[in-house]
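Consider the tokenized backbone below.
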């Protein structure tokens, strides 16, 4: 289904490189004059839990696939990981989530006010890392990257707003297209599209982004298709995955009322009485929902083919991304490691990106 050696080695090497970069940067801030040190202990909580490290690995791999040096993408890749973790901290609070990466969520451990502050501080750290690019990449590329981050952040908060509104309003009658619109904004931009685009900007010798419109557009569409497939698979794992591998609460999306493809499908395909009962359960506060209620919705999803519907959609989008990927001839087949590339895997190039396509739909975490 996918080459585990390529996927695992690239992700593990990224983890070592990114953790080291973040630790080094956090230590530099911790040692600043007047710094409040206890904050910096909390800043390394989520980033140092074992996550997938997809975003930095995509960024580094695209940069190297177009001829760039892996080290030149490291600061930006680490910043992307910090933005991701800041989103997760805030997302967990907004959703009332209980588990993240196999451990208790941060707000459950230290309280909501302190967790919000840690999320804010994580965003601030990411900005600091991006400013390191001035000395290594120059002003033009640094500004282009900052613009990409601004677009990514705007899209992400818009997507989150859509999802939160659907939950708050207990929205029914949502279509697959409604879900795709939300998913592209909330997931695809910051998880796939922006890492691809920034990796290309970092690695390409041409610093003028306006001259790179066509390849950037192709990478953007590739990231969008792959991101939709990834998110549907993530939603499926939340329904039918194994807690030990998945690292998050199974059924948590239903407890939170998230409008996934599968939930939208079962609401629209079940009979009126069943749909009314589903919406009644979804309107119940999370803490008052019972496991039996969650199980009843899962059974209806199985009855009406909602799980199969989601799986078919994920495969369809992955297939489209694979077809598009074969046309990206500006990505070199392989990029040999150079002596100055520390912590970088030989698979951080087109080979990782190709295996990523099947990984997103066949993974179990």
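A designed sequence for it:
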């Amino acid at each position: 289904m996918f080459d585990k050696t390529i996927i695992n080695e690239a992700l593990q090497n990224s983890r070592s490189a990114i953790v080291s970069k973040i630790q080094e940067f956090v230590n530099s801030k911790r040692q600043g004059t007047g710094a409040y040190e206890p904050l910096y202990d909390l800043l390394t909580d989520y980033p140092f839990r074992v996550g997938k490290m997809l975003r930095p690995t995509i960024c580094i791999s695209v940069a190297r696939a177009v001829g760039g040096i892996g080290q030149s993408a490291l600061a930006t890749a680490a910043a992307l990981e910090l933005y991701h973790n800041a989103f997760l901290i805030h997302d967990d609070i907004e959703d009332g989530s209980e588990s993240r990466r196999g451990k208790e969520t941060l707000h459950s451990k230290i309280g909501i006010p302190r967790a919000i502050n840690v999320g804010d501080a994580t965003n601030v750290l990411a900005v600091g890392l991006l400013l390191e690019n001035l000395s290594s990449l120059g002003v033009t590329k640094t500004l282009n990257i900052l613009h990409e981050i601004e677009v990514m952040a705007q899209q992400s908060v818009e997507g989150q707003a859509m999802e939160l509104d659907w939950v708050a309003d207990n929205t029914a009658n949502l279509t697959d297209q409604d879900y795709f619109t939300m998913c592209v904004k909330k997931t695809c931009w910051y998880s796939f599209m922006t890492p691809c685009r920034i990796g290309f900007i970092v690695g390409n010798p041409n610093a003028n982004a306006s001259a790179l419109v066509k390849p950037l557009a192709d990478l953007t569409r590739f990231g969008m298709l792959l991101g939709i497939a990834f998110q549907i698979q993530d939603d499926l794992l939340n329904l039918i995955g194994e807690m030990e591998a998945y690292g998050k609460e199974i059924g948590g999306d239903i407890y939170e009322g998230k409008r996934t493809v599968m939930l939208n499908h079962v609401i629209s395909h079940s009979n009126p009485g069943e749909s009314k009962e589903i919406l009644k359960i979804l309107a119940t506060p999370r803490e008052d929902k019972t496991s039996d209620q969650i199980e009843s919705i899962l059974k209806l999803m199985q009855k009406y083919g909602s799980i199969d519907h989601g799986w078919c959609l994920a495969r369809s989008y992955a297939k489209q991304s694979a077809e598009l990927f074969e046309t990206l001839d500006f990505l070199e087949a392989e990029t040999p490691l150079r002596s100055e590339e520390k912590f970088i895997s030989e698979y951080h190039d087109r080979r990782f990106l190709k295996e990523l396509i099947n990984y997103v739909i066949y993974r179990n975490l």
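The first strand starts at residue 99 and ends at 100.
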